[in-house]
Amino acid sequence: MYPGIEAFEVSTLKVSDIHTLYYEVSGKKDGTPVVFLHGGPGGGTSEYERGYFNPDKYKIVLFDQRGAGKSTPSASLEDNTTWDLVKDIERLREHLKIDKWHVFGGSWGSTLSLAYAQSHPDRVKSLVLRGIFTLRKSELRFFYQDGASHLFPEAWDEFLAPIPESERGDLILAYHAQLNSVDEETRLKAARAWSRWEMWTSKLYVDPAQVAHADDDKFANAFARIENHYFVNSGFMRDGQLLEVQEIDKIRHIPTIVVQGRYDVVCPATTAYALKKVWPEVTLHIVPDAGHSAREPGIAKLLIEATDSFADL
């Protein structure tokens, strides 16, 4: 990772009657612009993410998506869809007077990167994507119903605990009811359990500090509620839309590097492989000793090599 730097601009941008986004800009003021799209949805950004980019070359833009991180109102589901976020990215680009920028996103950030690029291909210089996620029903079923549970049975028991046995046939829907309960303790208990499941499974070697992050009620409430909202609504897209040939054709010309952990159980390698099959022009790196997290050493190394390779584009 590049050494830690301070942001030279920290501000907010009102994008609707309801939502105000937190954003920051760091690195080189007249550098090549790059926007970082965080995961979740609902995950938010941290100063750590500045380190994927050479600060002597990049003008680094980080922002928290609707309801996430320091954006307000926290955990709000109203007017919060994939296409609202795509419009927000454009509003931020125009606000910062940027003509074209590089786009960097992992996990849900890769979903949003593809959706944004397919909507505004003339504004994207390159894509660096990690842990490909396209929000197909098969991907959600693997992680939230029957798949990853076979690898992390003890964590899966914790995930199941808040849900009555009679409601476990559709866990995303069952969690939706609890995450939107009028009872605050019910909501928070469900939010912590939902978040712990993802924190448990995000690295090849379970990281207790990452699991403990789910005990932060503000983070867990936004992360769980917004993720579940998107998943219940199938990402507000056709199933498999981002992989459709007519959608890929819109971005086929954009230089793209994909970094995928071989043992990623949150966003398994099959989705990155499906993207490569429909879009053979992409460069796909499968890291043999990594899970999902961008902080896995092998993944971080390749992500930085990718941003370095595009820095002068």
UniProtKB/TrEMBL annotation:
<dbReference type="GO" id="GO:0006508">
    <property type="term" value="P:proteolysis"/>
</dbReference>
<dbReference type="InterPro" id="IPR029058">
    <property type="entry name" value="AB_hydrolase_fold"/>
</dbReference>
<dbReference type="Pfam" id="PF00561">
    <property type="entry name" value="Abhydrolase_1"/>
</dbReference>
<keyword id="KW-0645">Protease</keyword>
<protein>
    <recommendedName>
        <fullName>Proline iminopeptidase</fullName>
        <ecNumber>3.4.11.5</ecNumber>
    </recommendedName>
</protein>
<feature type="active site" description="Proton donor">
    <location>
        <position position="292"/>
    </location>
</feature>
<keyword id="KW-0963">Cytoplasm</keyword>
<dbReference type="GO" id="GO:0005737">
    <property type="term" value="C:cytoplasm"/>
</dbReference>
<feature type="active site" description="Nucleophile">
    <location>
        <position position="107"/>
    </location>
</feature>
<feature type="active site">
    <location>
        <position position="264"/>
    </location>
</feature>
<keyword id="KW-0378">Hydrolase</keyword>
<feature type="domain" description="AB hydrolase-1">
    <location>
        <begin position="33"/>
        <end position="294"/>
    </location>
</feature>
<dbReference type="InterPro" id="IPR000073">
    <property type="entry name" value="AB_hydrolase_1"/>
</dbReference>
<comment type="similarity">
    <text>Belongs to the peptidase S33 family.</text>
</comment>
<dbReference type="InterPro" id="IPR005944">
    <property type="entry name" value="Pro_iminopeptidase"/>
</dbReference>
<dbReference type="InterPro" id="IPR002410">
    <property type="entry name" value="Peptidase_S33"/>
</dbReference>
<keyword id="KW-0031">Aminopeptidase</keyword>
<dbReference type="GO" id="GO:0004177">
    <property type="term" value="F:aminopeptidase activity"/>
</dbReference>
